[in-house]
Amino acid sequence: MTRKMQVLASVLALFMLLTTLSACSSKNSNSGNGNSGNGNGGSTGSEANGNAGKSEAKDTITALLPPVSGNYQNNFAQMEKDFNALYPNLTLKIEPASWEDMTQKLDTQVNAGSPPDIAFIGSDGISKYVQQGMLMDIKDTATPEMVSDYDPAPLEYMKNGDGLYGFPAYMEVHAIGGNKEYLEAAGIDWKNVQKNGWTFEEFREAIKKGVVKEGDTTKRYGFVFATSGVTAKDYLNILIKNAGMPASFNKDLKYAYTSKNYLEVLKAVRLMIDDGSMPKELSSVDAGKRWNMFLTGQTMITGKGLATFENSANKNNEKLKANDGSAVQGSIPVEYIVLPVPTFLGQEPVSSTVVDGYVTFRGKKEPTAEHKANVVKAAYFLASGQVAATTNNDLFAAHISKSGREAAESMTIDRNPDNVAAVETLLSHANPARPDIPVELGAKAIKMEDEVIIPKLQALLADEISPEEMYEAVKAAAIKNFGEDGIVND
């Protein structure tokens, strides 16, 4: 080979080497830029949210959200902005709803075959929408980092069978709440009750002592529970969990509410009204009236009691102190005390827990893999990190994700330490999730509740039927739905 040819070969080889190096450098640089996101804003900084900031096709994710906390809906614009900053190609479009019209709005959209991508609902509603084929299973799309961010117990509530249908927002305990001054005036050792609980017999005697009468007029009741409107199903559901029926089906998948214990709880419900501890018009007491009665001193104990009620009472106290006209009319300063629901018939305490969360929906058509991944990013964004920490602190709810706890470390919150300990005790015997209940059975149980139990309970509270008549009606409907062999006979 001539020297000229050798020089030319060397130049060509050098050119090819430089071209290869340049291509590799360009490829590595693009990959690095694509993975530069920090995950959920205010989260752990992991890549649990996927490749934030990566240039992808534009997409819009819709969410139907109720007023989860007092300030929640005020933050929607900021939440949309923060999500778009995290994912510049994605838009989060939030539609607000009230608690009262949330179910109707969602069902209307579901029935039309065009539900939102995400809806905030109770985990107990998952089986209903799974049966309708309108939920999106995200178990193969949610990243391991996302899934491992949550405490195992609340995450189980977002499952049905083998499917995962969203992320939990919080795990709340359905307790009852007392006015500290009135409890102590009635001689009730509320600190002991917080630690060790009480039986129905003990509870009944306590609420009798809380009644204050002037002649034939009751000025204060021992116990008031909201049983009308959106709270219609809560009262009985909370009580029966402490009577050996933690779920609508036992472990053998037999319908549980035909147990003899169910009848005994119905008798107790009627008994507390008949002895004057609860108002005769209990069936007309909705959530707003219940809370108004508590703040105005018309009841010693109220239910259902959530941790956030302490915060609500504190805020009303501050308004009273400042002579703020927006305080509840006729209200008095109240120190809210968390109390457990009484146990029945020697059964172990089982706290009624509610796990609500961001449930993922699909339309009639199968979503693309890209859209599915984007919906998961949005659901995780709402249920973790800064958003979750802010919402749960507003609710006084326990944080259930690592990223939420970390984001909450810099936030201040003023809670009664006795109440914090009481809630922890209640959570220690929370009713477990039951993803083993088949979809069709869960849907039938919900239908039974809506069409038989709630109407009959309203009639029982109004003294239109007896506990025995309600029990027989529930049992007859259960046999019709589940068969003689599909119910508990004890």
Automatic annotation (TrEMBL):
<protein>
    <recommendedName>
        <fullName>ABC transporter substrate-binding protein</fullName>
    </recommendedName>
</protein>
<dbReference type="InterPro" id="IPR006059">
    <property type="entry name" value="SBP"/>
</dbReference>
<keyword id="KW-0732">Signal</keyword>
<feature type="compositionally biased region" description="Gly residues">
    <location>
        <begin position="34"/>
        <end position="44"/>
    </location>
</feature>
<feature type="signal peptide">
    <location>
        <begin position="1"/>
        <end position="23"/>
    </location>
</feature>
<feature type="region of interest" description="Disordered">
    <location>
        <begin position="26"/>
        <end position="55"/>
    </location>
</feature>
<dbReference type="Pfam" id="PF01547">
    <property type="entry name" value="SBP_bac_1"/>
</dbReference>
<dbReference type="InterPro" id="IPR050490">
    <property type="entry name" value="Bact_solute-bd_prot1"/>
</dbReference>
